[in-house]
Amino acid sequence: MPPTRADLDAARHTTIDDVLGPGLDVLFCGINPSLYSAATGHHFARPGNRFWPALHLSGLVPRRLVPSEQHLLPGYGLGITNLASRATARADELSAEELRQGALRLSRLVAETGPRVVAVAGVSAYRLGFGRKKAEIGRQDEEIAGSEVWVLPNPSGLNAHWSLDGIAAQMRLLSRSS
Fold first, then answer.
1. What pairing do the DSSP bridges indicate for beta strands 138-144 and 147-152?
2. What is the pTM of this model?
3. For residues 55 and 61, is the Cβ–Cβ distance under 8 A?
4. CATH number of 5-14+25-177: 3.40.718.10, 1.10.540.10, 3.40.50.720, 3.40.470.10?
5. Which of 28, 36, 102, 176 has the fewest CB atoms within 10 Å, counting from its CB?
């Protein structure tokens, strides 16, 4: 049963746990949880979010998972975190300072967990958080705590600039480097 309006309102400013495990190949980093994700406790849970279908189409997982199966990701060498922890209705409700603080937190998390690749899903958030004004989608020149960095398109259904196939193609490129 999907969350009610009251559930979504109650989820504002709450957080959800990271999905982590030992020896991660890829740590995906969303911008921040949507109210829908916070209400369900699952990353990329809002209907219309293309993360889960793109993950499957990219070949990183053998079948299409649903958000409630996020606990299976570490078994595939994958994890999920967010730049900003608090849930909002839209990512543009976050301040630049929140994204910069999130980049610092992500750097500490990467240093602790050591994924081979960090994949930030959202170029604008990456630019703001890491101060990389000219960053583009794809592999970045810099590393975070020794981990390769990729910037992926934001899989939100609100991102009309990228199709599901385009997002999956970017994930596929990342998977070939891993």
1. antiparallel
2. 0.96
3. yes
4. 3.40.470.10
5. 176
